[in-house]
Every structure is written in C-alpha cells, then in structure tokens.
Design goal:
binds the ligand Cc1cc(N2CCCCCC2)n2ncc(-c3ccc(F)cc3)c2n1, alpha/beta
C-alpha cells in the first residue's frame, strides 16, 4: 500500500517506463521539503519556497503532458498560519507571483485553475490573484490544476457535515438518504467530479504522514513516499512515482 522511493533508487536516475494507457486520472501531492532544501544550501527558508514554486510550474506541464486529468497540490494548510509572520507573508504572495508569470503558459497548455480552501481568509491581493487566474483559465478544458490553499481536511469535513445538516433541517434531504455520494458532494473536491478522489497521493521529502490532507478522498488512493525534496522534484521523479503506482494491483477493498 505504501511505497518509498529514495534517491538511490535506479528508477529515479533514469526515465522510468510508464504505460500511457494507465496514467492516474487524479494525482495529489504534498509538496514537502522546501525548508530543508534551503537549509542544506545555507539559504533562507523562503529560497526553498521560491524554488518550490518553480517546481510547481515544471510539474504542472509534465503532468498535463502525461495526460493527468486533475493535479491537486497542497500549497498552504490551515495549520501553516502558525509559521513566522515573515514566512507567512512571503507564502501569501506566491500565488500572486505564480500567476503574474505563468497564466499564459497555463492557457497555452489548456490548464484550468481551481482552488479549494478557506480562501476568504486570505489577504485581498492573494484572493484577487487567485480569482483572476480562475477567471482567465475558466474556458480551458484540459488538466485541472487544483491548489489546496488554506485547506484542512478535518475542517472541510466539518463544513460538509454542517451543510448536510442544514439541508436536513430545511427539509431538502432525509437523513436516510444521506450516503457516500452526499458527502462527496458536500466536500471541497466536489467540483472535480468525476475525479474527486486521488488515484495517487505523493508526499516528498521522506515524511510518511498524511497531515490532514484529503482524509475522506484518499480512502482507496495509492500512496507513494519519496525522499526527493520538492524543489528537486522533476518530471522524471513524477514518472517514477507513476511507474510505482502502475506496478500496484489496486483492489478497492476486494480480493
Ligand atoms: C502558499 C503557496 C506556497 C507555494 N509554495 C511553492 C510550492 C511548495 C510549497 C510551499 C510554497 N506555492 N506555490 C504555488 C502556489 C500557488 C497557490 C495557489 C495558486 F492559486 C497559485 C499558486 C503556492 N502557494
């Protein structure tokens, strides 16, 4: 169920063979290791975040070219507000920088931007950049680039339960009619249907935790952990993760 790709793995030093007919429709990535990447180079943490944003651009195009239908990237969690103020301020301007430089490339590659999270709590400039990019790419019908921004899975689930309870209270839904599809439709990933659940979840930098990310949605996801730090993650690393995914025998709970 779990796999750990390390930098000594031959698969990561050569371009792995992958079956273009079995590309995971939805790939989600916990982009970890940016601070450690910077520390190893005696650079400030924000240098790791800046390089990490460049990796977002490269991996977005690589995933689109491979035929991935949805790429979900965990950019900022509800817990990240606890970081030092200067780091949070820097992180909050990254979506602005990203779109200032990358929207033409997104449109050229027919990539549609979506964002999930409590975006109303973000600084006004960040919200504007996000809303402008969503508007600028709304007619793109290729890969969906879905950023999780000020997102937390447990909060998402609580918000979904509140919405379902409100429907029952309003007489719009019977308790006995609540099923898994009801929950799917109440979560922030609903707009990604029919690809709301990740087929493959990747976490970089050697950590083997889920960290409050897509807890409901990853029920049957394949999990791949690589010790490659996000700033060092490349199209070849992505292909190695997908090759590992393709080597699995997914049973969805069956025999
Ligand atoms: C907060 C944050 C941090 C952030 N990092 C770079 C990637 C590594 C993880 C942490 C730092 N990146 N990279 C891209 C975005 C982004 C988010 C939303 C959006 F609509 C467009 C771009 C981003 N946002």
């Amino acid at each position: 169920m779990f796999a750990f790709l390390n930098k000594n793995d031959p698969a990561e030093t050569t371009t792995p063979a992958i079956d273009p007919q079995r590309i995971p429709a939805h790939v989600a990535i916990i982009m970890d290791g940016n601070g450690r990447w910077a520390k190893a180079r005696h650079l400030p943490r924000i240098a790791g975040h800046k390089e990490g944003m460049n990796t977002v651009k490269k991996v977005t195009i690589a995933a689109s070219d491979l035929g991935v239908k949805v790429l979900t990237l965990y950019a900022f969690s509800t817990e990240n507000w606890k970081r030092p103020t200067d780091e949070v301020n820097y992180l909050m301007q990254l979506p602005v920088s990203f779109f200032d430089t990358f929207v033409p490339d997104l449109v050229k590659n027919n990539v549609q931007v979506q964002v999930m999270g409590y975006t109303d709590k973000l600084p006004a400039k960040t919200q504007k950049a996000v809303n402008d990019a969503i508007a600028d790419t709304k007619d793109c019908d290729g890969m969906i680039l879905n950023f999780a921004l000020n997102y937390g899975s447990r909060s998402e689930i609580v918000s979904g339960i509140q919405a379902i309870a409100a429907q029952v209270q309003a007489g719009e839904l019977a308790v006995t009619d609540i099923d898994e599809a009801t929950v799917d439709q109440a979560l922030m990933t609903a707009p990604l249907a029919p690809y709301h659940d990740p087929d493959l979840l990747i976490r970089t930098s050697g950590e083997e935790r889920i960290s409050n990310f897509l807890l409901w949605q990853i029920a049957y996801s394949e999990l791949v952990f690589t010790d490659v730090k996000w700033p060092d993650f490349t199209a070849t690393t992505l292909k190695a993760c997908i090759a590992d995914y393709q080597s699995r025998d997914r049973r969805f709970g069956g025999l």
